[in-house]
Amino acid sequence: MLEIVILLVLVIGAVGYLSARRRVIAMATQSGVRNHSLPTYHGAFVALWVGLPALGLALIWLLLQESFVDHLILSSLPAQTIEGLDDARRSLVISEIRSIANGQVFGAPSPEMVEAAERLNSWSDLASWAMVVTSTCLALVCLAITRSKINPEFRARHGVERILDGLMIFCATVAIVTTLGIVASLLFEAYRFFERVPFTEFLFGLNWEPQIAIRADQVAGAGAFGAIPVFLGTMVIAFLAMVVAVPVGLLSAIYLAEYSGPQFRNTVKPILEILAGIPTVVYGFFAVLTVAPAMRTFGASLGLDVAPNSALAAGGVMGIMIIPFISSLSDDALNAVPRSLRDGSYAMGATKAETIAQVLLPAALPGIMGGVLLALSRAIGETMIVVMAAGLIAKMNINPLDSVTTVTVQIVTLLIGDTEFDNPKTLAAFALGLVLFLVTLGLNVIALRVVQKYREKYD
Amino acid sequence: MTSQPMPESHDWQSDDARRRVRRRHAADKRMRFYGLSAIGLAVGLLGVLLVTLILSGHTAFVQTMVPLQVTISPEKVSPDNIERGDYRSLVRGAFRDLLPIEMNRSEERAYRDMLSSGAPFLLRNRVLADPSVIGQTIEIDVPMADPVDQLHKGVTPRDVPEDQRRVNDLQLGFYDRLVEKGLISTPFNWALFFSADSRFPELAGLSGALVGSFYALLVCFLISFPVGIAAAVYLEEFARKNRWSDLIEVNINNLAAVPSVVFGLLGLAVFLGFFGLPRSAPLVGGMVLSLMTLPTIIIATRAALKAVPPSIREAAFGIGASRHQVVSHHVLPLALPGILTGTIIGLAQALGETAPLLLIGMNAFITSEPGGLTDPATALPTQIFIWADSPERGFVARTSAAILVLIGFLVFMNGIAIFMRQRLERKW
Amino acid sequence: MSEVEAMRSPNPALTRAAAVAAPATSAQARVAARDVNVYYGETHALKNVDIDIYNNEVVSFIGPSGCGKSTFLRCLNRMNDVIEGCRVTGEILLEGQDIHARALDVVQLRARVGMVFQKPNPFPKSIYDNIAYGPRLHGIAGAKSEIDDIVEISLSKAGLWKEVKDRLNEPGTGLSGGQQQRLCIARAIAVNPEVILMDEPCSALDPIATAKIEELIDELRENYTIVIVTHSMQQAARVSQRTAFFHLGTLVEWGETERIFTTPSDERTQGYITGRFG
Q1: Is residue A354 within 8 Å of C137, Cβ to Cβ?
Q2: Which region among A218-222, A346-350, A372-376 has the lowest average model confidence (pLDDT)?
Q3: C199 — phi, psi (to 5°)?
Q4: What confidence tens digit (pLDDT) does each residue in B81-133 have?
Q5: Strands C225-229 vs C195-199: parallel, antiparallel or unpaired
Q6: Which chain A residue's Cα is nearest to C184?
Q7: Nearest CA to CA, how far is A455 from chain C (Å)?
Q8: Does the beta carbon of A353 lie under 8 angstroms from any beta carbon of chain C?
Q9: pLDDT band at C17, cuts 50/70/90?
Q10: For range A1-11, the mean pLDDT
Q11: In A36-81, where do the E strands start and end?
């Protein structure tokens, strides 16, 4: 249906473009008045005014049509069918009707259902055609109105530019709308979660067993949604990742910035960047396939019992992923230290190592700290590596050889294969998401500010 | 003022001084060594990662096959109902004919299990594609079952006790006979690229995931490219510096650092929950990915616009062009290579994103290619995730192979970006 | 051959001969450069420079931009080593010892030949730590009290002690430009060098700060040999006893400041000091 609308609107728009052009040229030659704008602008003005409202209407229509029809269908059902049902059951009824309407019949549906499915099909068709008709009408109305405005004195270029301005502002606000969407959806779902589970229990509880809450009568299961062990696990893995990434990244940066020749630097830097470009699902597989078994074998040879999904394997591999963040940001920070400080130190008779340790690192510290904070936020928000390589069970454990779980692991496992937003189990994922968003946002804001301050200092 | 005596002149030649200098130089060398080892470690780990993937993945690029001579008798496959034909017995019979020796029932079952359970479907597809073969004898290559495949490729060892093998001694004997007769071949595994997912590793391929990723990236591109450029042009060329534009700017920078899983939550709550868009659809995947790609494109576009020297704008203004004309006629075309480079890099990132796609259900088990933007589908990274989670031995190699394919695409895209950066971007 | 004649002669060999017949004030030159050439990659930046620098004197290097005066200055403490692709040939003797010899370590050389740069470059550390940096590195002083003494003496010599003695723990970058430059001078003299090199030390300073630094240079002459690169001929005339004029990578002529400014022997020098180019 959308295709038909697009096609029709394109045709009407093209007609509008050509006719407006011809009209303004004809009027200009007839009256001898010089056009304010090029004929193309008159055409574009009409075409834009024809296309944009009609397409916008069609898109909004499409987005809302389904839930609107669902609503109508539900209210058209006999009262006793849906009476006393909560939202979840209602959506089950709807999806059953939908699958019947699509011709997938399981078992013997009740006659009301079959009837409703037929109604659904006919109403959906009706709604789609109504969309085509309304959008086309809107396009035609716009065509008539704008075409009547066309005359040589009309400032069509200003009109077009104003439309483009509006479009650009709209696009620029998409970023804001996205952030608002994130905040709103997280807050909304998290609020619903906290209606069921007390806020303090979530933030300070020591027991995380979301799986027991699948059945509605077990929602109030005591201590099931205490997120402290999840937070603790996240910190353990992020800490391990930083233990790997910070020394390796920082030392690499020091070598690249201070010791290496340009050729070595130009070869090695892109290679390190590759580490950042590898998708995280690949690291996850690497952790499971290679690193975890290797650590288990190595641990066994030392007489240590290493869990198959140990925090060390997940954190270590995450550290590898983060190395290039630390190294490139530290490299930038070291390079931003002015040459004069190096000269000053060398002229005092300091060796390179002394200059690095006593002058350059202290001077670059804010920049490096900013990079470390960004990397930390990255480690906390990283998902695939831990989903594949870390544990699922939340325990109060800081032993890196044992398994821990993280916020992101819980979000993914709570939501995979479950779309109903009605029980604390799925809603808990949004509460965790909210915490994750706030923490990473905080880290980023601080880090960006630190880095910016630092840049200003030496610019 | 300067009458105070300086401490006595330092004796630079004393043993103490020499020792000290030696120690300091040694410390310098140590620092150098640490730096070099850190780089060596990072590069070495990258090497280990790639080598592991190649070692474990290369076997999936070939497939152990046997040729079957199948006579499609009309009794088994009626031309009126090709879908419902008894392909299983046809395939079994033809496979049995390959090894004309006496077998008892259990031996026969063990022998039969060596062939992929998907073989009848391959035959069915062949007949469906060309119904005229009914009544004729055709030759068709079908894959062996995963255990035999792994054994033949040498992934699983054969000289271990029987209970540690998935191919028992009986089957090993049959296998050796088939090899002796030269019936087993390992051609390039086209199915990896042209089949969709399957429960059986020997049949599973990436075509569904490739098409799904293509659709998702297409949607992602169609949304993020125009929106990103428009937003960047507005911020860079039109917006006055005020609170509002600062807010947008801070917003974009922070959006670039929001964890990807949070975008998944957004997609789940808003696109699926609020707007009721279909689950597992590349359309929704592409929309979520476009929100993640947007900051990358905006930042790259702004950098490209900034790189266009002001003199060009002034020249165009000087001959009476409007701001819009200056931007669209002069600035944008000059900045385009930089914008495209940034866009390709952004799309390459989007291609590798997994977590948000998991949350909107693009990890479904789907055995056919999606036919449109709203059909359930998987994407390349989520397919990797699904396969990595599968217990069958054959999926390990498939997963690595899928990763190699994914990395291949990423290398290709980044290669284009680097090429464009070097060739097309002008230095002012 | 009289000294004056030798000085007038544009022939470098003759100039060298004059240098060997050194003035009576010191038996031996503190720094002696012989046939020094500097290359930056393919560029021949400094050609066949021969010069002697004597004890307790201020020598100024003058010449138009890019003439090689700073390059030569940086040869004297091997700061050119740090620059990628830079090659130095010839011989530079410090107290008769070749500074490129293996026996003389570059870190020791730089402690003995201190340097002050064009832009004040205090380390982002406290005033105290800025001064203590060198002594600690070279192990000149270990105990806290010794370092305290060195800090006080160095700052006093640099004329900064009275201004900063109550805020030694504040960052050196918080001082004014002139104070920062004097801090850098104090930092250089804290390791008690034999020679101090100054690369246009006043070019980033206002006239009052410049006057203070010039006064300081004059006082420091008592204990140190000072080489100063300057753009300003007035400054060269005010602070230095000897002046060397560089032009297009060659040392055109050198000698007593008064003579160079009144009766230069080379017409290029003449042209420069009378403002015809530069």
Answers
A1: yes
A2: A218-222
A3: -100, 95
A4: 888 888 888 898 899 888 888 888 888 888 988 999 888 888 888 888 888 88
A5: parallel
A6: A344
A7: 15
A8: no
A9: very low
A10: 85
A11: none
